[in-house]
Amino acid sequence: MRSLLPPLVLISVLTVAGCTGTTTPNAENSADGSAIVLADSAEPATLNPLLGYGRDGVSKVYDGLFEHRADRSLRPQLAEDLPKPAADGLSWTVRLRGDVKFSDGSAFGPEDVVATYRALLDPAAGASERSRYEGLTGVEQLDVRTVRFTLAKSWAAFPHLLTLGVLSSESFSVPLKDMLPVGTGPFKVTEWRKGDRLILESNPKHFAGEPKIRKVTVVFVPDDNTRAQRMQAGEFDGAELPQRLAQPFTGTSGMRVVTHRSTDLRAVTLPSGPVTGDPAMRMALNHAVNRKGLVDNLLGGKGSAAATPIPDTMPEFYDPTAAFAYDKVQTELMLEQAGWVRGADGVRARNGVPARFTLMYPIGDVVRADLSTAFAADARAIGVDVQLAGLSWEAITPRLGADALLYGGGTPFDPDLTAYPPLHTGNPWGYANTQVDAALDAGRTLLDPAQRVAAYRQFQQAYVVSPGMAVLAAVQHTYVLRDNWTGYQEVVDPHAHGPLAWGPWWNLEKWAAR
Fold it and tell me: Residue 116 and residue 168: Cα distance in Å, rounded?
């Protein structure tokens, strides 16, 4: 990993950029502001919505039946109005717009919605998003403008999953991995240089009108330090950066540093096993973590301490009493009583098994590396040896059930989508808790808002009695933007964010040059 530019070089670069007035030359030197160049930390593996692209909507290339507003509520997109549930909650009916075309000129209709969701449900199609829709049993066309979705059980959060990008029915003549990225969205793909960049152009056929920004270039730079250096060098008009790398841009003329609250949780998974699967060890690790210190020192205050997957960015569901007190003395006593005794090297052991485990984090991710290091230090203070491993995702995925992971995930749109996947029985790390399951099942199936709030409060209280992870914080996302465009609107980010998802550019189709 390369280091940052020396401070004097950094200051001189920013001074040059800052002496040109309110707007500075953009990365492509387009005089009319019709082109923008953005840096992304992660290149998508695919541009197919059924294979995971744009799972929280705002994918730029595709529209879903609905999209989320800045206030987290749903609004119609390809649909004409909000979905209507049946009285028993076992189906949802959606009325479609009649003025939509795909970027290749073909007409959009209910057959496209049916084809997309049936491919999602078909095991033979190989849609990786299928597991997210496990409660969906079918979709049918009712008439030339209406479709109906049927469910195995009532599912209050289901409309939030109807942001899935819709593909044309004709495109399913080839396997999902071979489909061309043709959607109804405000932009269309013109070039994808894998490992380097993705180039989008505005879609003149978009039903909401052609965007003012005609060209979007997204450059993939996974290493945080490298992304900061290239932003300093003027190669990009915007980039997400860790707070400590974004701070030097603060106060620079022509630049903005913005921070978004998020439901992007950072947590340490604790897989089943002799060490991390022990209930006393799980509880001790949760009490050993100085969450406030992590937020204040490592995140520069850009985050909020969290103990469960329902953070304070979901205020209507959040229970502030569901927490773990930072108490090293009580934690040491807890481990002694559970039979974990310190050895001569300071590491505890029980029945000949040392209190030692591996914590993986994605290499190049500065925030997760810092949090992993801090967690390991807190664990070491109570006699638990955490071995850190910065790895690629290809190396991490096969080891999820055996080794701990500095997990990132979450969405602000519904607590079901944030809490159910990592903690309901069937999660990759093997955590199972009948009381947690019961509360999560109630929150999923109840349609009454007040009853759902009660269910998620019960979930949080049940979870802190027997935790399955060490949830650390909901991180805030920090971005550096060249201030040459209007249209920016702050949002609460989900985990998935960046130029092709949420973040400052979630509504890029509404931006215009100053």
Answer: 7
